[in-house]
């Protein structure tokens, strides 16, 4: 695509469209599983802990791959990495159309997770580079598109599988948007100067305390998302619901995630301090988990909506907070890759722990208690992120790593 033939506004619109198309492919591999978990378990013999790997493995890949970016970018271009990542997602979906064993399903989750990890690791740096003056709004749109893809997969998975009389169809149909994204990237991507994987500056952040704090913060406040995606449909079934009803709950959560990811960052976009928005999002999320824990049958939809709004706003605001710690797009993108790397490892472990608690205790109460405690802890940690302290915090390495 030649950017010299179109206006800057049209170029921004095309870039934003590309961001949306890419982001739509980053969650279906996670959210399509939950609503179809019972037929998948009946067909393959998966236990709850094994089923947790279908969520945990991709998320762990999302963590490990960004940590390798300082080394991978020496051999893989941004263009090649993006095409490879999207192709891996598509191939995993094709594989899911025909698999019939637990081992193959888990392996497909790992392949798709690697693809998502490469694409997702590059996205914050791309958004920061393409929209430097409108970072909060652009990150909100990226986050909303990412969550919309997840919600569509949860809602459409059961009817697609019912239509084809095969749960594999509900998992594999997402090859279509993956291939559309490959074409869109090939045609629409800007031909700018960034050629390295992620378009980031050199170096890593293992020796910086603030980078670790941001990473743990990102991981824990998003652990609720992976746990809800993995276990909310099963929790709904335990309370007399259906597979479609569980998918609809994930869809409802996604609607409010999108509202949170778009609405709160845009409402507070002129505020240099992200803490008020994060506090509000965490309090709403906390109220939802308390309701789910104490009165699930009274208003499950309300609790899920509150959790979704809080999760969506937290995801967008926490990534924006990370990018704003550094001035140059390259360094900020590199920091975001590190934060996502460590953060998604933590996020991937959380549903495995909550699934283990479900197996041990016989219900999900202990799982919701753990997530409630985590939200309370993150409310306290948020106080550390005053904007006037960004520069000093990023200049202080941890001696043990030097």
Describe what you observe in this structure:
- With 402 residues, the chain is an all-alpha fold.
- Helices cover 75% and strands 0% of the residues.
- The protein contains 17 helices and no strands.
In a few lines, what is going on in this structure?
With about 400 residues, the chain is mainly alpha-helical.
How can the largest sheet be summarized?
Answer: none
Q: H/E element string?
A: HHHHHHHHHHHHHHHHH
Structural category: mainly alpha
Shape from CA axes? globular
Oligomer: single chain
The helix fraction, in percent, is over 70%
Radius of gyration: 20 Å
The unreliable regions are 194-202, 398-402
Distance between the termini: 45 Å
In terms of topology, how is this protein built?
Blueprint: H1 8-23, H2 28-31, H3 37-44, H4 48-67, H5 69-72, H6 78-96, H7 102-130, H8 135-163, H9 167-172, H10 175-188, H11 209-238, H12 243-267, H13 275-294, H14 300-323, H15 329-361, H16 365-381, H17 390-394
Helix pairs in contact: 1-7, 1-8, 1-10, 4-7, 4-15, 6-7, 6-10, 7-15, 8-12, 8-14, 11-12, 11-14, 11-15, 11-16, 12-14, 13-14, 13-16, 15-16
